[in-house]
Structure formats: structure tokens, C-alpha cells
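Friendly challenge for the regulars: who can give me the C-alpha cells for this chain first? No prize, just bragging rights.
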Amino acid sequence: MTLSHTDALIQIRDLSVTFPSESGSVEAVRNVSLDIRAGEVLGIVGESGSGKSVTSLATIGLLPDSARVSGEVLYNGKNLLKLTDEEMSQYRGSDIAMIFQDPLSALNPVQTIGHQIAEALLIHQNISKSAADKKVVELLDVVGIPKPQERARSYPHEFSGGMRQRVMIALAIANEPKVLLADEPTTALDVTVQAQVLDALKHARDITGAAIVLVTHDMGVVAGLADRIAIMYAGKIVEQGPVNEVFAQPAMPYTIGLLHSIPRVDAKAGSRLASIPGSPASPVDLPQGCAFAPRCPAAQDICLSANPPLVQIVSSPDHAAACARVDQIQGLVASNKLFEEGPAHSPTKNESAVNVLELKDLKKTFPLMKGAIMRRRIGSVFAVDGVSLTLKQGQSLALVGESGCGKTTTLIEILNLVAPESGSITVLGKNAATISKKERLALRKDLQIVFQDPFASLDARLPIGEAICEPLKTFGYSKTDQRARLSELLLLVGLNPMHANRFPSEFSGGQRQRIAIARALALNPKLLVLDEPVSALDVSVRAGVLNLLAELQEKLSLSYLFVSHDLAVVQHIADQVAVMYLGSIVETGPVAEVFKDPQHPYTQALLSAVPIPDPIIERGRSRIVLQGEIPSPANPPSGCRFHNRCQIRMILPKDQQDRCSTERPVMKKSTHGEVACHFPIGAK
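First reply, four minutes later:
Bragging rights claimed.
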């Protein structure tokens, strides 16, 4: 079923896309019907492999030749799927434009930014080269690129990720298209940069009046920007309708599960997420009935035998869902018979608990070199500059900040367990600078890490049982003890011990991360370092891993050093938070209190930039969009490192502004922790 409207610019009807593979046909998109309407933002949401990106690529004719495509994509009465590539090029870039997910690979590295945008103008418009160059500067200014005339002569590698994405937006709107296809335009960007990009996208929409198709996995982004939403699962649309209605009264169990499994920055600290059981369906071997039925708590026999069509919700003419029990779903939600949240995480509040980790004035610099033959040092990169932290036994400390702030370098310094360049590192009461080689090896049993990418951290050639037992073997455990511990660990992380002989490629992303956690727990560590452990996982899988980490901490009295750029995730897993900017800590304190009442302007900006998956709340919030880019750690600003981007400094008297730009603040007591700011928010 499609909810038809006469103002549709593009009508997608029964679109199906299949790819050949060694395992069989991959049904990437299955009978998708959508209307893209003039002047509105349509959000297409789904997890990895749901078919959302393939749908947008099919619309603009950018699928590989191996793809088998059927159905219709109607634009001005023409089926775009029937056009040759040469015929399609008349529409591509002029009437329909695309903003790709990875701007670095989408832009030509050997041509300047200005040349690439001017090329798009000259191909589709009858204008002179000088007029095109002038238009390029105007476009770069529109999307917020500073010094546009100068930066037009720069190459893509000279721009940051956020600036490159804004260049992609400028390139897309150059010819004032009728439709903009934005494929995951904010993926892999920091929240503050994401806010800048979304602001540029809104501005572009206002200028061109184009319809926008926003392909994303982030429900918060959709809540703040989209007018309508289409939820995809296993290549099909399972629910669509106005954003406010779908968020307020979702009618498909998958949509309900997604909304309940999303970490929210406005949630109660330590609250447990609802988790969708199982893993997303494989597009190679789809079940006969509803593809979501194996994971659905409301599934019945009819769901396993028949594939439900998209049907209109009685209460709303523009809201439809594909569920055999669509009329009963709201009753099940009201009686809590669908996805339930577990008990809240209970942090350890023992003030006399020992410190498992202490950093005092930790510093780490890297040499900045010049010259090919006679290399010489011309400066230093201040990666970590005076970091002091304390983590108590049984608690979680989250280290948060934008990319390049020094989080990972801090972790590496801790894990090396050697004397730092400056300052001190004390792990479980032992100073890393004074311990012997034997003591260092013994200490590694108590200090383990879970990496960001579970697939890269596991040896693809080893069965998972061998991978988990590697640390046990290293520390001399007998084979009998290894086998017993292996079964215990797999059960502990929610996996079947019978699968120990399988290889990492046979598991889903969430299962692989559970395997990595099991390996990290093999030696009964006291301190677990978690480096972005859920950032590579789909939303529904992420909730299960976060809940597992909370359960393990309570069961085993573990201490976590949790590194993340996602403050919504931190809200659900951490007890304490340390906010890092350009190599330094700017604010610390309990998560609940820091998030409720941030004292540092940077913390305030970070929190305001995190999208909330609720259209009413998200559109009623005041958002702080930071200006400019993060300064280089090789040439940090004088005074407060944040002063040249600070929203509070802009409204201060001249003498106070001068203090921010000349005098570096030190950490001092705040209402709930410590803050490094001359004029903390709310201070009298």
C-alpha cells in the first residue's frame, strides 16, 4: 500500500533491488512504495542492511550493473529506471542531487573544492567561468565555510570532516535541485559538527525549497528535521507516517523496539534500555512470513506464515504499518507486553572504596617534524596536556569529547603501564613508572580493554573459543581450566558455549562484541577499559551490549573507564563523567548532575547538540551550534583553549573576554564536581 498524494515530486512504486552473491540472491529492497513530496523532509530510518541506502541510490541511478532492479521511479511522468546513464545524467545533479555519506571519498582529491563545485555549475547551466567562480564563493558562504574565497582554492584533505560535508551540501544545492537525497550525512561526525551540518542542511532547504530524503539510522536527527518518516526492516517499509504520529503512537513492534532501545541524553542516569532480542534478518535467507517475527514479542502463527502488507491505521489517513496485529499493538504497549526496560543501574556509592586508577597532571606530546632528508623538529602536538582523573572501585568513569581531544591517547598511556612523559599513572595502587617488568605483566591481568571494532579486534583465522582462551593460555592455565572458564564466560555474556568452534565471521556485530567482552573478562580483571564499545553497532544491538555491561559491573564489581563521544550512551552506563577538550579536562562530576546542570560552556554545547528522539522535545529545544573548527593541538590558543568558540565569552564584558583569551583557567570546585572555567555557567 502507498499513501498517495498529488503533490509528490517523485513516486516510487513497487521498487525491488536484488544483488547476486555466493550465498544466494540478496534481496536488498522488496516492493518499496514511497512518495517524495515538494518542500518536505522524508526520513528513511533503519539498521544496517535494511535497504535504505540502496533505495536512495536506485532513485538516482547509481546502483552497480550487477543489481537487478524492478518497479518504477516516476519523475515528471518519466520512469527514471528505464533511462540510460546518459539520459539520467540530465536529471542527476540538476533536478535530483545527492549528499553522500563519506565526503572524502566522494570529492576528487586532486582538484580544488572550487573547481569541483564550478564544474557542476558549468555542466548544467549556461554560465561563464567567472560567473561560476563567483557562485562557488556564494555557495560556500551559504553553508558556513569561513573565508570562502580563500578556501575555494583548498583541496579536500585540507578540510575537516564537518567542513567537507558542508562542501558536499554546497555541491548538491549548486543547481537548485528539486530533490536532495542525503545518505547518512552526519554519520561518523561529532555531535557538535553534526549540529553544524544539520544547520547547513536546513539552510539549504530554506534557500532551494527542495524536498529532502534523509537516510539515517539516527532517530533523533529525524525527530528534529523530518516531516514524515519511513521505517525499513529487511528491505521493506514496515511503518510510515507523519513524524509526530509515528513517534507518539508507533504501530509496528519493530518501531516500538527501536524507540525503546535508543539511549537518550534526557533519560534518568543509569536507566536500563529495552533490548530487541536476536539480530537483524539476513537479506539472503529471509523467512516466509514477517521478517521481524523471529525477534518480535508479539509474534503469532499468522506472522510466521504470511508477509503482512502495509495497511492504513484507522485513526490516521497518512499513517500505515506492516503488522498482522496492527489493531492490537497499542493495547499490548499499554499492558507492557512488548519491550520492557530492565531495572535501573545501581552505581557503587562507597566513599571509602579504593582508587583503581589515578592520573595526575598526565602529559603526552608528539614531535612535529619537517624535512624529507634532514628531518628536524619544528614544534609539538599537545595530545594530552595536564589530565588528572580518579576512578574508584566498582564505578564507571566516562571520558567524553570530540574527535582529536586526546581520549584515545590517554587510554594508550594508561595501557602502556610505563613512565609517562610527564605526570603520573597509578593503576590499582601501583605507579607505572616504578613497577618491574614482572609486576607489569601481573598487573595486565587486572587491566583489560574492549576495542571499538569487534571484528578487527578478533583474529578471523581463530575460532572464538581459542581467541577467548588466549589470555588464559598466556598466564599458564591448564587446558581443563581453560575449557571450564570458556563455557563460564560464554554463558556470562549471553552466548551458547556450543558455538565456541565457530569463527568470528559467523557471528553478528553484537555477538562479536560480546565475544570481545568475554575475552577481556577471562582473567577476572578489576579494571576494564571500554574504547567506544558500541559505536560500531546497530541501535537494537547496542542496547543489549550496554545492558550486558551494566549487569556485569554489578555482578563482578568491575570498574569501567568508558571512552565515548556519544553522551546519550554515557547517560546509561557511567557514574562519573570527565569532559575533555583539546587535550585537557574541562569539567568533571556525577553524570546525572553534570548533564542536568553543566557548568562549562563546552559541556553545555555538547549536551545541546545531542539529538533527542522525540519531535516535540527536540523541536522545542534551544540548540547551541558552535562556530568554527577545533583548533590544532599543535598550535593551541592562548588562555582558555575553548575561548575562540565559546558562546558564553561572546556576551561577557571586554575585560572578562580578555581574561579568557590570555589566562588559562585551572580546575576548581563547582556545585557538583570540578570545572576549568573563569566564568562557569550559573556561578554568581
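DSSP finds 25 helices and 24 strands in the chain. The chain has a mean pLDDT of 89. Your move, everyone else.
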